[in-house]
Design brief:
18 helices; Creatine Amidinohydrolase; six-stranded mixed beta sheet; globular; Creatine Amidinohydrolase, Chain A, domain 1
Amino acid sequence: MTTKEKIAAIREQMKENRVDAYIIPSADPHISEYLPDHYKCIQFASGFTGSAGTLVITQDFAGLWTDFRYFTQANEQLHNSGFELVKLKIQHAPEYIAWLHETLADNATVAFNDRLLSVFLGQLLENQLADKNIEFKSYDLLDSIWEGRPKLPIEPAFLIDTKYAGQSTTDKLTTLRKSLKALKADYQLISSLDDIAWLFNIRGKDVSYNPVVLSFALVSASSAVLFIDPVKLSSSDAEALHKSGVKTFPYTDIEDALAALPENCSVFIDPKRNCFGVFKLIPVSATFIHDVNPTTHFKATKNETEVANMRSAMVRDGVAMTRFFKWMEENIGKIKITEITAAEKLKGFRAEQDGFAGVSFNTIGGYKAHGALPHYFATAESDVEILEEGLFLVDSGGQYFYGTTDITRMIALGNNTEEERTDYTLVLKAIIEGSKTLYPKGTCGYQIDAICRRPLWDYAINYGHGTGHGIGFYLNVHEGPQVLNPTNTAVPLEIGMITSIEPGIYRPGKHGVRIENLVLTIQNVSNEFNDFYSFETLTLALIDTTLIKKELLENSHIQWLNKYHETVVERLSPYLTVEEQAWLKEKAKAI
């Protein structure tokens, strides 16, 4: 079926069911960012492959609401599809709700698959459309027209050893139960796959890039139940969970378990990480405590073992990046290299490292104008050859059994313009400003975000994405609760948090520049004014110095960069050949 035929088929079902507007979110029953193929509904319906967006279909309009990162991509992918791009003013904001309020008549009917909508969004829809007396229904209008819809994955899961995780499942459950007791919660429903993976020290292959397992968890003071397809667990892992005080039941048994909860019990729910449909199975007599999962906070603050393992992952990843840079320099113009083949080569270098478990996201390898698309990834249709001129942006990462990486670097290929050199230097200045910041305890991400943007604001330049995100330990490349972006998110940076810093400049049709490192929040100094924290830069990889305009940097920036490169050479050299060591030392020499 063509996209337009799919829209027509959905509208026909809407007529049959008396639905005035149908919403298709980008989510699964666990409100995940990256989805199993079975739940890639937006891609099936519209052809749009971005990781964030919402489709809304009425009888006379079909639109995709998405943010700045995807405007160019969406325009291309939605061309002649029957869907129009609606540009979000604020990233992640559900602005389609206001559009529905303005567009729909009183007493209209809005439908969606309530297993794909968060509790937060479900309740927000009900509240913001309440004055129009809207009726809400749950339908999956895609299943009947989705020929060959992928089945839910049945990849095996596995437990990770405490020598990697640093804390046993038993200890983690004890910590969680203390938190639930303080919150006066009898039960907690956990649907978010990364929280479950952390709590039970379990990993899997159900979702591309994120080593998680489709599952639900229900925890109380006396029990912990993991709802998971039994074929995914080996007998030894099932026994190990049992010894940790964890019962296992089939994945779909969560429905009966929630319906059987005692009347008037109190249930802790993270409204942004649980789906509306499962939430509504809980008895109406229950009282709810709505907040961020305690495990999300626990998970974000890495223990000493996790930090040590992450440092090892950065070394291995830095070795792979060094070999990739050297290979690019020695082969560009001699053999045909495209965006796709470059990404494959980089993956190959990572695969040579001990403990490699896959890439942590689809590599963003954008040459020239493609670099101006923040979340671009090459396809057979968009792939271009990389030549001996311009800029190549490479945003990539690896999953290792002992950590997760995320790094962005620019490769200067020759004949670079003054504008490219200026943009590159300003972005470098921005990441250094953030990385060397000393900040008092209690500082939140939006404050660091502004510090990073200041060198660009001085030139009336800005970027539309956040400056940074949390990152998991052999888990999701994006995690919270901390975030470096302009929103007033009241989550302070805590010792042990690992966060990205990734400012950028994007000039559509020309080039994009982004440089990214991962940093660890550490204690720096304590005095009569406060405890002051700083960042330890964990990422270990060359930052190209050939484009730098030194006159745009202050001495502190130059000193930071030179010291950083000293550390890179020192930490990576033991794992490089003599030839690779010499190459890196030359490229990383002080400016």
